[in-house]
Write a structure and sequence with these properties.
Subcellular location: Membrane
Protein name: Palmitoyltransferase
Number of helices: 10
Low-confidence stretches: 301-336
Membrane topology: Multi-pass membrane protein
Helix content: 40-55%
Number of strands: 8
Largest sheet: 2 strands, antiparallel
GO cellular component, one term: membrane
Oligomer: single chain
Family: Belongs to the DHHC palmitoyltransferase family.
Bound molecules: zinc ion
Amino acid sequence: MHSGCRMALSRGLRCCQRVFSWVPVVIISSVVLWSYYAYVWELCLVTVENALEKAVYLLVFHIVFLLFIWTYWKAIFTPPKEPTKKFLLPYAEKERYDSEERPEVQRQILAEFAKKLPVYTRTGSGAIRFCDRCQVVKPDRCHHCSVCGMCVLKMDHHCPWVNNCIGFSNYKFFLLFLAYAMLYCAYIAATVFQYFLLYWTAELPNNRAKFHVLFLLFVSLMFFISLMFLFGYHCWLVGLNRTTLEAFSAPVFPSGPDKNGFHLGIRRNLEQVFGKRKKLWIIPVFTSIGDGLSFPMRMVSESHNPLLGGNQWDDEGTDDESPVSRESHVILEMDT
Ligand SMILES: [Zn+2]
Ligand SMILES: [Zn+2]
């Protein structure tokens, strides 16, 4: 009875948590909807008198608005990717791992299993990175998100503003969302400014539109400045091929921790996220290079590289991956 109550309570709490996690998205969406109404109706249709100016403002606004909404939608609804089945600890190993009390033997069990996997980074103590909750050997750059309750490939951070985990599958969409949100704010601020001045100098009649136009300028400038810092930070990260988590805690390689372990040079770092076809860089379609499970690395010497020591790949249980992806994504750089 007691355990039944506890279960019902925890299920209720989880449900509440899930509902509340949408609050930031609802707030942003409400502000965006209001900005649409204020710009289209109160500014363009009520305040602007010149027909050509009205048409140009509305046309450009709708193009920017659609791109912004499209990227926001993709950032919210593109689910994070988790490790494939081949990273899952098999039943026999799991039994041995769970029944073993000596940590060094547990480490050995994981090390044996991980020999067949393309994992290269380790924990601070040099052990294989293993997630107890998901029972998976974590691929390089993968981390467990406690909010999502899963291991996320190339996890960057959990973003409350999109109520989603930002990682390998949606990082490009997140960056484009920041960029188009900035463009949206900048466009509104630039076109509203002259009407703000006209209201300020009382050259336009004091009506309801005044309130909306004044707020459009303040709100768009406020969001533009906040987004500028966040976008600038992520541009710096992309340029160095680092995730937010890696910027705080360097990935550990056999040679030791190295924040620049995945840095391949700016052009190739950009290609890792945006793909090789430059035309698609600004379009919110998935073009990132790789499968999210393994990544090209800088300065990896053959002698230290477990992936080049003969055929150590496990060809079983690779149903989720194509041989092409495996070949093209574990290009280990000698140098750049
Ligand atoms: Zn996990
Ligand atoms: Zn998450």
